[in-house]
What we know:
Order of helices and strands: EEEEEEEEEEEE
CATH topology of the domain at 48-152: Immunoglobulin-like
Strand content: over 45%
Structural class: mainly beta
Shape: rod-shaped
Radius of gyration: 27 Å
Amino acid sequence: xxxxxxxxxxxxxxxxxxxxxxxxxxxxxxxxxxxxxxxxxxxxxxxxxxxxxxxxxxxxxxxxxxxxxxxxxxxxxxxxxxxxxxxxxxxxxxxxxxxxxxxxxxxxxxxxxxxxxxxxxxxxxxxxxxxxxxxxxxxxxxxxxxxxxxxxxxxxxxxxxxxxxxxxxxxxxxxxxxxx
Length: 180
């Protein structure tokens, strides 16, 4: 449905909003006596969603290369310019690729990070859609995000003890650990 509005000649700022869609804003300069037809496609707030986030290995150790695999899906009928932001919270950015995502298509990104610390960590994944007529000028709106918690353990050393004769009791740091 079209809306017709009478305005004075000159420059005007148009802002279009609808619940469930990202707002858009743009300027137009009009001349007296002329008619301007403006058509815009609004982008739904769930335009691109995260389908899957995988971290391998599932129980990483300090020094391991951790692979992060993220799959996102375009839920619209138009090609969208997107950005994927993947990082370990308060530690490092793993990836920040931009890409075009066709209508109803999926995109899978894979990145790696070498675990350089131990303890509980949080992976943040966010997917954004670029809007030329973003309220702040051409920019991205976030359409989906998620967190995935994981723990990096200290890498242990292995001690193999052999005795002759076998059957000796073995203690490590005063604690009984078994027999040879």
